[in-house]
UniProtKB/TrEMBL annotation:
Protein name: Por secretion system C-terminal sorting domain-containing protein
Signal peptide: 1-24
Species in which this protein is naturally found: Alkalitalea saponilacus
Domain Secretion system C-terminal sorting: 787-855
Name of a matching Pfam family: Por_Secre_tail
Keywords: Signal
Amino acid sequence: MKKHLLFTVSVLFLFMLGNILTNAQFSQIPNHDFSEWEDKFLMSKPQGWLTETSPDAIETRRKSENAVDGDYSIELVTIPNDEDDDEDVIVGFVIMGSFSEEGLKGEAWENRADKLHFSARHNIEDGDAAVAMVILSNDGNRIGAGLIEITGSSNDQWDTFEIPITFNGGTTLDADEIVVGFISSAISDVYQIGGFEPGSFVPAAGSFFNVDNVYLTLGDDPTPIQIENGSFEDWEDVSVYEPIGWGSYNLEVSDGLLPVTKFDEDGVSGVKITNVMSDWGDLVGVLFLQDNDFVRGVSYTADAPPAILISYKYEPTGAPEASLFVTFEGIKDGEEVEQGGGWFPLDPTAEFIQKGFQLHGFDHDFTPERLRINLWLGENNEGSVLYVSNLEFAEVYDITFRVNNNDNGEPVQWANIHIDGYPWPWQTGDDGIADISLPIGSYNYSVSAMGYSTYTGTINVTENDDVFVLMTPFEPDPEELFIDITDGDADKVYFEGNWFSANITLPPTDPAIPNNSDLVVSVVLFTGPDAYLEEGDAPNIFADAPAVSPINENTFSISGDIGNNDVTGVIGLKITGIMIDMGPGGMVEQPLPEPIAFPIFDTYEYAYYSQQGSDRGMAIVGVSIPDGNIVSHPQFSQINDLYNTDEGITFIREDHGTIYFPWLNIIDNRDQLAQLNDGLNIAGDPNGQGFYVEVDLNIVPFLQSHWVDVALGNIPDGVNVEDVLVVRTQFGETGSPASDKAGNTDDYQLEDGVFSFRIHGGFSRYSLVLEDESVQARTFEMESATLFPNPFNNQITISVAEAVKEIRMTSVNGQTLVQEIMNGKNSVNTSLLPAGFYIVTVIMEDGSVIKKPMIKK
């Protein structure tokens, strides 16, 4: 289902500037230097009436010159929201009234009337009905109302209609407030908002309702009692100032500070994006490509561009969150998918810089059709500013790194080359050479290799070029601690029963430790670089007391069997003194001036890997995977190389799903694994209609270098899976799927009640939906349920005795804007919703449904 956001208004005039770069095979980004701006006319709307202004729904309401009274009338049309789902529609509506904290609120109107009249042309689809309603109130209390449902067709002729108003108590009363509404289809929310008994109609795309000459009367007197602009003669234009070819949320901010504006400073011009608060309480520092049909993205049918360049200045008010997102939509194997592009964080900079990012390419059988680009400042840090003067596709150049030993000129094999802006390094081969493709720009880089000191430098890429790197062999500092782990355990990870041994050379001490002294040593457990648990506070790391040799020339050895792997940390030692032979007095401990405590690591190995931010080389015991949703994983002691597993590692979830990572580096990715509970979420639809796998943004950097197999088991018997859909939520948008088929997915399989699929490379968030229309939910009211606060702002909380499986929120025109599997939670984040009136649907574990109207400030 496509995301639909009320009151989001933007438009562009598409300028496709094809083949202007040196490579004529790929096309350029429209208005890539943001030099073309205009005050864009979006729509006309009737004055005094509330109607849909969302770009997706502009076609649901039109100004018409076919009129009964005056020159104009209003046409309302129901349009499809999802071409593949006949029941997923957007209705046309016009309402005299507004939504307030108390609910639907009418316009001031001090009169007495008992009938509403109007003229209409209509052509309503079978099974559907247009709806007209009137509500009168006095002193905030509803005193009377009326509603009619119109079906069939008027054959392009104007008919007149009359709605009797039924008053509380049967007596016509004076009103000081009026609500009048016309809707092209009979969506259930209309009845609920108006307080009417629901009909049995089903909204259908194509229903047409043309309304004019709206007025009221009292009794037998035919004299019209007018309402403001009842004949829809007065219209107002809505426009927004934006760069041509781009859209924004400028119409969502009413306090004068716009998220997207034009800048021209010191000879540099372009677009300024500011993270400002919208009227619905959300930060909307976003700029996106958008076409004339108000669909994000523009037509693109050329080859994949190799890279994208951005010239920008970024001034965040907190931790940097700005990013550039590029993707292409198209066809692969007859299916709609997304491929190519990438997601690129932007570093803060006080001056304008140009930065290049290499884009993921297309598969050979992928045909691109649309290009999508978002510039987003993130969900936090109000007031952050991003200036962009240019954003264009570009060529890449071949850069050859030649890495050699500075002492003897020999090539340095398997050196890692890290380039700023790229998450994973390149590596030299046997000849010390690595070929890297980079777009034009300036790059900081570092080169590291086992046994060498890290080399750093900067390269300016303007053409194909060679980079020569001379690396200095690493020599341990004789004034520093030196450790040689001698037990042959290549990965330095220890489990119960493993043999551990190491030779340790202490730095010089003052006074010097006498040769052949017995050390007073305790085994400690380091939980961080400078934090450790004393021997009495930590479990016994060794099965028995380890053997510690006498010290000689500041060198000693330690060895023993590991006895406990139920705690995670690094084996450490604490030396507090030496034993002195006092002759007849026996052995007496002589304390050191200061205790010496240190974690045990292989000096050469750790000197290299620590520069890469890795724990590799440290004597790690008891590697654990976080508790929570993950209930099972293999015995790590049976895996030969935890840094690069041969067979992969499978995590089993409480909800009967499995997540499989091939060749996963456990040691270096413990922090990311700790986020799996939140980052990967598997849950079932409360109606048995689907299963979802949410891959969240917080583990994207980790997962982009792995492919992940996900298997959903325990699918209920009798579920007839007619369609399999993997949908992607676009970067920076709400949780509703925004496109049809997900790119970077393959290997679908449904067998024996288990559905398996694969995700790999460059994704942000996906939902897997297994649709089954044979299961229906039953509905009844449950008075014990409480939803609060009402009105709400950024969160809704539910208090109910029974377990909640799902919460959905729909807008006044029937669009689902929030759909969240609760998984034991009792609140829903509503920060992305605009201010307005919503129907909140709560689906319980037993399938029962509660509906309640609520207001967002």
